[in-house]
Write a structure and sequence with these properties.
The protein is an alpha/beta fold. Helix 3 runs parallel beside helix 5, helix 9 packs parallel to helix 13 and helix 15 packs parallel to helix 22. The radius of gyration is 25 Å and the shape is globular. The model has no long low-confidence stretch (mean pLDDT 96). Bound molecules: thiamine diphosphate (TPP). The site of thiamine diphosphate (TPP) has 15 residues, from helix 18.
């Protein structure tokens, strides 16, 4: 074996092994020549599971879904050139939603950069500040020092990606030809030292500051708002705090708190009304997790901008787009709740009863949805999905319908969405990435979003994955019909409605998926309980105008009933 090949083999094998021993169990690989040494040595590693996806944009989101569901860092590997640029949307989503991704791009060596070599773009800091950490790697060598360096870089990549707040890191690898490694028995040949132990502390509360906050929030009318939470241990502590203080929890579906029957679930409907917003004026708002999806909830919080607004976020960041925070608390959420419970007495008052009455009245109306409009179909979908499944909702109306029709205490499923950058891209792939970890995934995606990532379906075929996708096909962007632009008759259809006329039966055939056209709620319920290998595409054709009008009628009726409940 010549020296060059030995350098390529040892260097990359040590890097991959170090990633693996630091916690990386999965890698998503896209094909290419420059990445050959890393790709082959990833395939050879006994404890690394690899997935293949040709389209790098889809591959990025696939890795994102896998990392979300396993809550572990996932590696991504591609060749040089525009391949690497195609990871950007997933890198952006991972950064905002705090998901650890380890992006490995292969590159030309320095002498072949900026000199017209093929497939060479500037990959240095390609993702800018969106990547938490960037390293331009050394040319492969197999000296003891070089191998210690590359192992350390592997461990550090995992550390940087997973340290709070989690996010994407980028390592760029320059490789000289020839690229083929001498992989036979490599992981038995290399000397493997103990991995570096990666240790971070927790944001723990300070006595005196906790006393101050407890004094501030020692009021009767508190409201707890819970958005998407990464730290699942926070859930029971938030519930206990709410119970002890008699404070309602306004639970975004991605908080996972709607498994509990007592949380508020129909607020998006009744908080559309200003009189109700005023009648439910809080004395303090305590917010956990990411921003909730409901706009009426955001407007409720903004309307009461003059009350103390405490944001508890253990991982840092500044999630407060309306600039409402009076206290930004960087403390572990569960620990915060425990400290507050120690300091505040038990309380029962009319306050919660009032919220519960209003919520119940609105919910009764929302439950009446029935028919072939998207709201009713979504409601039916949620009733029929098997217990223990995972639901992934696309952006645009699906996540909003999840908010409207996921009734508290009625469905024991895990809920996912890509609410970092709210893109309509990469949704098929994110859902497939979740399925790749072994979860039983049911996705609901709008037709434009589905079109955007049809390529993602190849990932199911190439990696033998199964999931069910319900495509809500309203022939274009349904969400825009709810916005003021819908009144703009001259330009609306061409610029916002964007009817594509696409139907996805042929796409299903192209990618080897099962396909069923859905014509009724009963049929949808039946199909959701069929068990098939591979991807099943259920396509429901709906009408944008009817969807909007049915939603508006429900909201109006829900508000009326909620107002009546307030007066009783
Ligand atoms: N491009 C990306 C990558 N992300 C976006 N969020 C948008 C554009 C803007 N956008 C938001 S919603 C939407 C568009 C284009 C329409 C989505 O249509 P569809 O997926 O069919 O869902 P529906 O609105 O019908 O529920």
């Amino acid at each position: 074996m010549n020296n060059h090949q030995e350098n390529m083999t040892q260097y990359n094998a040590h890097f991959i092994d170090s990633l693996n021993r630091s916690g990386v169990e999965y890698a998503v690989i896209s094909p290419g020549s420059r990445s050959t040494p890393m790709a082959i040595l990833m395939e050879e590693h006994p404890d690394l599971t690899t997935f293949i996806q040709v389209d790098e944009r889809s591959a990025g989101f696939f890795a994102l879904g896998l990392a979300k569901s396993t809550q572990k860092p996932v590696a991504l590997l591609c060749t040089s050139g525009t391949a690497a640029a195609n990871y950007m949307p997933a890198v952006a989503e991972a950064a905002i939603s705090r998901v650890p991704l380890i992006v490995l791009t292969s590159d030309r060596p320095p002498e072949l950069r900026d000199v017209g070599a093929p497939q060479a773009i500037d990959q240095i800091h390609l993702y800018g500040h969106t990547a938490k950490w960037f390293a331009e790697m050394a040319i492969p060598e197999s000296t003891e020092n070089a191998l210690r360096y590359v192992r350390t870089q592997g461990a550090r990549a995992v550390f940087e990606a997973t340290a709070a707040p989690g996010g994407p890191v980028h390592l760029n690898f320059p490789y000289r030809e020839p690229l083929l490694p001498d992989y036979d028995g490599i992981y038995e040949r290399i000397y493997i030292p103990a991995p570096i132990r990666l240790i971070t502390g927790k944001q723990m509360p300070d006595e005196q500051q906790m006393n101050e906050i407890a004094d501030t929030i020692h009021v009767e009318k508190g409201v707890i708002v819970a958005g998407e939470l990464v730290n699942m241990n926070a859930l029971s502590a938030i519930l206990s705090l709410s119970e002890k203080r008699g404070w309602p929890i306004i639970a975004d579906p991605l908080s996972q708190l709607r498994k509990n029957a007592d949380v508020m679930d129909s607020y998006d409907a009744f908080l559309r009304d200003d009189d109700i917003k005023d009648a439910l004026k809080p004395e303090v708002i305590i917010r956990f997790g990411a921003l909730p999806v409901s706009k009426s909830l955001m407007l409720y919080m903004e309307r009461h901008s003059n009350v103390p607004h405490v944001i508890v976020d253990t991982d840092g960041g500044w999630r407060d787009p309306f600039h409402l925070a009076t206290h930004m608390v960087r403390v572990n959420e569960a620990a915060f709740c425990i400290e507050m419970m120690k300091r505040l007495p038990e309380q029962s008052s009319n306050w919660t009863t009032c919220w519960q009455k209003v919520n119940a009245a609105a919910r009764t109306v929302m439950k009446e949805a029935d028919g072939m409009d998207e709201g009713a179909l979504f409601s039916r979908f949620l009733q029929a999905v098997p217990e223990g499944a995972s639901i992934f909702t696309g952006n645009s109306m699906p996540i909003r319908d999840l908010d409207s029709f996921l009734f508290a205490g009625e469905q024991h499923v895990r809920l996912y969405g890509n609410r970092g950058a709210n893109g309509i891209d990469g949704l098929v792939s994110t859902a497939l990435g979740i399925a790749a970890s072994g979860e039983n995934v049911y996705a609901v995606i709008g037709d434009l979003s589905f079109f955007h990532d049809v390529n993602g379906l190849l990932g199911a075929k190439m990696n033998r994955l199964s999931m069910t996708v319900l495509v809500m096909n309203n022939d274009g962007g349904g969400i825009f019909s709810y916005l003021p632009q819908s009144g703009e008759k001259k330009h609306f259809e061409r610029l916002f409605g964007t009817p594509t006329g696409l139907k996805f039966e042929h796409a299903a055939a192209l990618y080897g998926c099962h396909y069923v056209r859905i014509d009724s709620g009963d049929q949808l319920a039946k199909e959701l309980n069929e068990s098939r290998d591979g991807v099943t595409i259920l396509e429901a054709f709906t009408d944008r105008a009817a969807n909007t009008s049915v939603h508006r009628t429900l909201w109006k009726e829900a508000i009326q009933q909620a107002k009546q409940a307030l007066e009783e």
